[in-house]
Amino acid sequence: MKLMLLKGVFLAQKVLLNVSFLFFRLFGPKQKEGVVIGIEEIASILYSAGGALKNAKTVNFYKNPYYDEKYDYYFGQYKVCRALVHLISPVVLGYLMVRYKTFIYISGNGYLMRHLDGRAYEFSKLKKHGCEVICYFTGSDIRSFKRLNTFGKAHNMDVITTYQPISHKGIDSEFKENIRKMLGESADKYASAIFNPSTDQMAYIERECHPFLYFADERKIRYLPEKFKQEKKVVLHAPSSPIIKGTPIVRAVIKQLQEEGYDFEYVELIGVPNTQVMAELAKAHIVLNEFYALVPGVFGVEAMMNNAVLLTSADRQLEPTLFEGANEAWVVTPYWQLYGNLKEALECPMELLQVQADKGTQWVERYCTYDFSAKYLNNVIEQLDD
Predict the structure, then answer these.
(1) Strand ranges (DSSP E) for the chain?
(2) Is the Cα dihedral 357, 359, 362, 368 positive or negative?
(3) 264-268 and 309-312 strand pairing
(4) Which CA distances in Å does 75 have to 54, 58, 81, 84, 219?
(5) Which residues contact 128 (CB under 8 A, 6 or more apart)?
(6) Fewest 10 Å CB contacts: which of 6, 8, 346, 354?
């Protein structure tokens, strides 16, 4: 029954897309140009990428509870649009196909349902009508549970997919794994470029991928020497998903160190707006990020933007798409080393903590800014036209 319903909706979407394209082509420009980025906000990537690229248009069909940004086409701010998203989005795609040359897809969702073909029909239509497709994957949208679990066993270590089925029941089902498989295969076949960390987001993608780019606002990157003149250290942990970020281990380690008499302030933030997280990061000396991942994630970059010492499991030896100097920018901390590394950081003089924090902030300035990522992304787009 569910499969029949999906097929019915997908058929309706294809009809709406084709009718919309034919209609808007009557009034559209003779030549396509410009970039469209969509269709949902993930950790501020959609908004940031739109701001980093000149003349880019952002499209958002969903509302993210942690971010309150503005988008060029923000259908997600209206309840009726969210309710009818499967009928509205194909019409919007038909309109955009007439006008824009390059389509950047953030995460796994598309303008048409991905459940039956992994966006293959959608991508093929774009390519047929002279558009370029760029896929920018963000994590669980593309990460293969089968492949990453196999990697974890081979390296005798727990990984994100070890625990994700606990907090996200059914995410490892055969049905959802098959969707991720189709997404990878469609990207392989149709995308002109793919951004995806090859190990952390191990996927059904055989081509070489570009590294995951961060879009840190240069105006918000800051050195905060005054906080390192305080006596008591502040340790911060702000998991978006506690189970897969290692929060149970973090709490156990914090409790053990407190029992041993270490005097520090521990701040834990869950489910709060990003503005509050950023305010607390400015006060933190040590940030505990995530401990099963192989990239630092947006929160890790935000920590280094705020001149904090970052402890995280990201490791360039396992994730080769990380930029040079990554393992020196933070303290590489797989989950089994959290107690020892945090204990060492608490015992470390403030002036040495500041040296490590500065390394992280410098790395963000070099590889994670709007300017750097915009140049990288623009270069990829320009090469598509060569």
Answers:
(1) 35-38, 56-60, 73-74, 102-106, 132-136, 193-195, 233-237, 264-268, 286-288, 309-312, 331-332
(2) negative
(3) unpaired
(4) 22, 11, 6, 10, 29
(5) none
(6) 8
Contact between 268 and 238 under an 8 Å Cβ cutoff? The reply is: yes
Q: Structure pTM?
A: 0.90
- Give burial (CB, 10 Å; 0-12/13-18/19+) of 300: buried
Chain-centroid distance of CA 46 in Å reads 9
Q: Phi/psi of residue 271, each to 5°?
A: 70, 30
Q: Find the mean pLDDT for residues 220-234.
A: 96
Structure tokens at 93: 């795609």
Q: What is the pLDDT of residues 5-36, one digit of tens each?
A: 999 999 999 999 999 999 999 988 888 889 99
Cβ 48 vs Cβ 370: under 8 Å: yes
* Residue 256, H or E segment: helix 247-259
The whole-angstrom separation of Cα 280 and Cα 275 is 9
Give the residue-averaged pLDDT of 186-196: 96
The residue-averaged pLDDT of 205-223 equals 92
Asked if 238 contacts 303 with a C-beta cutoff of 8 angstroms, the reply is no
Q: How confident is the model at residue 125 (pLDDT cuts 50, 70, 90)?
A: very high
Tokens describing residue 280:
């607390």
Residue 357: its pLDDT value, please? 98
Q: 201, exposed or middle or buried, with CB in 10 Å at 0-12, 13-18, 19+?
A: buried
User: 386: pLDDT confidence band, cut at 50, 70 and 90?
Assistant: low
Residue 45, pLDDT > 70, answer yes
